[in-house]
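Figure S7 source data.
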Amino acid sequence: MTEAELYLQYKGVFVPKLVHSPESLQFFEEFTFRHDDIIAVTYPKSGTTWMQEILPLIVSEGDITPVLTLTNWDRMPWLEEHRAKELNLEQRPPPRLFVSHCHYSMMPESFFKVKPKVIYVMRNPKDVFTSSYPYYGMAMYMVNPGTKDEFLETFLDGKVIFGSWFDHVKGWLGAKDQDCIMYISYEEMILDLKASISKISLFIGKTLSQEVIEKIADHCMFKNMKQNKMSNYSLVPSEYMDQKKSEFLRKGIAGDWKNNLTEAQAARFDSVYKEKMKDVNFKFMWDE
Ligand code: A3P
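Tokens for the predicted adenosine-3'-5'-diphosphate complex:
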């Protein structure tokens, strides 16, 4: 199926129609934030599901009940998706936890006034691409990616859901009010999950014991999260996600692009990266 059939255009980017509608996007635009809300913002395939496991466990101080009884999309909903409207978010006790894939420039008016806390998760874009390719092949609500070479151009051009990775990252890195934003990378979490959990806890004002941090880190290890049916997308019918083609929690490593991109594909990626990121001074955790 084509882009026109599967996607909506929202502020210059594609979003999948299966989970977004003009009404859901209007709900997002009119959403009233509270200063104690916490939003994990990610470009798709950068570690959203991981944050939907980590943050609720930090808030519950290691009690795993919420992550074993609520799906990731209910415990930490996407504000721009249909589901958010149905969850009676007004009644949720603080801190309310949300995720969003939106660019900084797409955030609603209330966000800029209230300045809730944001955890912005970044991942090596070559790994984002590597993770996206099988995902676009298994998720029936996405346009078939074609060959890897074709998808590479689609991805580099930002003709994918939520637009260009480069614009997304540059937009959030250039955000005002950076005191409210914590930047973290997928690679940092892979390198030292306990330290990352500790850093996130401090940012959201939670002091956790070493024992609780270790318990959370253990639960959030890839092999353990993969077993959690509330997080591994096994509850999504196979007509929407065919996990026989590729699992949602696929490999969970840093640097998988090295196993998946040819030298020519990596070189093409690097040349676009170099041009698009030439004015960015941020020190990323991955090899550029
Ligand atoms: P891979 O496809 O490279 O395995 P998102 O949730 O933003 O869609 O990102 C999905 C990516 O995060 C997938 O990457 C998935 O396996 C990875 N991921 C999810 N949970 C993880 C965990 N606990 N540890 C490491 N990677 C994880």
